[in-house]
Design brief:
By secondary structure, the chain is mostly helical. 62% of the residues lie in helices and 10% in strands. The chain has helices at 28-34, 44-68, 74-83, 88-100, 106-117, 123-132, 137-145, 151-167, 175-184, 189-199, 202-205, and strands at residues 3-9, 13-18, 21-27. The longest helix has 25 residues, at 44-68. The N and C termini lie far apart (83 Å).
């Protein structure tokens, strides 16, 4: 493989292009140790050594450092490593390592997410947010079925009570407006109607 470009990226990093395409980045001290320059031919063995002996350990350290600050999904961590300049092959190896040793577990992430947000957000809101994090719908649905059944109703009750403190009680005149607000949040229609009926001003509704 031919080194077609060595481009300084910031103060310490050097972008390495092989055969006209981005391959990886090295720190300047690593490049000095390897002693190659633009136009040099790199053997397949040397490139493999760079990947396995330099890039892979560094990418593992980067991933573990990111996980210290909070759990992430596979997609989130993959994106962060890609943004940091690691090639796809290295990212796949790092993700495999993390999953093998349970540092990365999307199913556990979903379960924790539902436990944390299940009393604040609707099923639809959580599914959409987790979808943006790369969680498949099927994985969310499975975790959702394992949750305590009353969790979503408790979340809706808390949201209704908060809304009534600012918007006033539920009446015949504003029943539909309240219903539309909670429906947009993704709560089931039957649950919304049932709880709104409980909170409704009975005298006003007669």
């Amino acid at each position: 493989m031919t080194v077609t470009q060595l481009k300084l990226d910031g103060k310490y990093k050097v972008q390495v292009d092989l055969d006209g395409e981005y391959a990886f980045f090295l720190y300047q001290k690593e490049l000095r140790r390897l002693c190659f320059k633009e136009g040099d031919e790199l053997s397949d063995q040397l490139v493999e050594d760079i990947y396995q002996l330099i890039l892979l350990p560094r990418a593992k350290d980067k991933a573990l450092s990111l996980l210290k600050y909070g759990n992430r999904t596979t997609k989130e961590l993959s994106q962060r490593l890609e943004q940091a300049g690691y090639p796809a092959m290295i990212i796949r190896q790092v993700l495999g390592f993390l999953k093998e040793y349970r540092f990365l577990d999307d199913k556990a992430y979903v379960q924790s997410y539902i436990e944390l947000h299940g009393q604040k957000k609707s099923r639809m809101q959580m599914q959409q947010e987790l979808g943006r994090k790369g969680i498949p719908k099927e994985m969310f649905e499975q975790a959702w079925e394992e949750r305590p059944e009353e969790m979503e109703e408790e979340a809706l009750k808390a949201l209704m009570q908060k809304r009534m403190r600012t918007k006033g009680p539920v009446t015949k005149e504003n029943f539909q407006k309240h219903y539309a607000f909670f429906a947009r949040k993704g709560y089931p229609s039957s649950m919304i109607i049932g709880l709104l009926s409980e909170y409704r001003d009975r005298e006003d509704f007669i």
